[in-house]
Amino acid sequence: MSxxxxxxxxxxxSALERYETPFYAYDLASVQARxxxxxxxxxxxxxxxxxxxxxxxxxxxxxLGWGVFLEAVSLGEVRRAYAAxxxxxxxxxxxxxxxxxxxxELKELGVPLLGLDSLADAERVARHLPGSHVxxxxxxxxxxxxxxxxxxxxxxxxxxxxxxxxGRALEIARAGGLDVLGLHVHLGSALEHPExxxxxxxxxxxxxxxxxxxxxxxxxxxxxxxxxxxxxxPEALGLAERLGVELWLxxxxxxxxxxxxxxxxxxxxxxxxRNFLLVDAGMSHLLxxxxxxxxxxxxxxxAGGAPQTFDLAGPACESGDILARGLTLPTPQEGDALAILxxxxxxxxxxxxxxxxxxxxxLLWTGEEWEVLRQRQSWESLLLEEQAEG
Length: 390
Ligand code: LLP
Hints:
Helices cover 31% and strands 23% of the residues. With 390 residues, the protein is an alpha/beta fold. The strands form 2 sheets. Strands 1, 10, 11, 12, 13, 14, 15, 16 and 17 form a 9-stranded mixed β-sheet that branches. It has an 8-stranded parallel barrel with strand order 2-3-4-5-6-7-8-9, surrounded by 5 helices. Strand 13 (307-313) and strand 14 form a beta hairpin. The radius of gyration is 22 Å and the shape is globular. It binds ligand LLP. Residues 50, 53, 71, 94, 150, 186, 189-190, 220-223, 250-254, 288, 292, 346, 350 line the site of ligand LLP.
């Protein structure tokens, strides 16, 4: 699982001869392999890729070609999904708040499938978009194990409708003329324990017995990179079979995380009370280490000298701008490059313009050549929205 595939590593060396760092680079074969593995584990499921994990059009279009649909959580993502060529029946819009303005815009664009997140959401969607096809998102109120920011299925989270309120939400939706396809649960992200999923499935089974029948059961995403899908899939498939429903899934990270790396060059070492390696990528490019304490493996793209232990320090003026801690690496020379692994999900999509940092170049390795998915953002575009009208 860990470590760069040698072909992709060789391709990265060729990219370093042509492109300035930092850049994101993705291996298309890895995304395709993950789609294949997911389909093999869940043969009958409809897959909606959570595009927040990686919204590059060049990736979305490939997924469309492989029959994968999209899960979106904002108007911008729906617009992007349509721009990539997805039809409105191939896009599912979730999210806790859909304003009247957003609903009016969806009416213009074409209304996607809608996930309803609260009684107020159900009532408002019924008022503005009657006749829509919807799912109700359940908050199963379970003690899901993951980072607090990612535990959406806990009773304390802002997401979903508690089991005891599902009946009322169904009444509101149906009375308002919505077509309720079924229920949805997304327990959280980066989940590593099959027991969390089992507990979630049990809640859904109870709710289907109580409120069904429905056509669809959406079991969400959340598959952590270490999760054993084979241990989980038969239970999800068995549940869908027993209930006689179509199974939907919404994986994000699982499909793209390991396909992507952030490539950065080292610009020296520095000693305070710790030993630092100074690199040209930081929190503006990859926020996950700072925001969640996420640990991304790092692989040197150079041979180098004697090993040392380093913290990887980015260029931002924040002491928290550390991409990895306590790494043992061969001592690099100025300009040597490193690959930060597992950066294909929630890397670029969470990057920011903090400190007027342009969003980085993004490249796709097709197996034969490098395709530019997104140019490095221009300096001019950083000023664009502030240009005074004449
Ligand atoms: N479905 C819904 C309703 C979601 O909210 C999410 C992710 C997914 C599916 C996909 O979850 P996945 O399979 O990728 O775990 N920024 C965080 C992750 C936030 C996930 C938010 N929702 C990170 O960098 O780890």
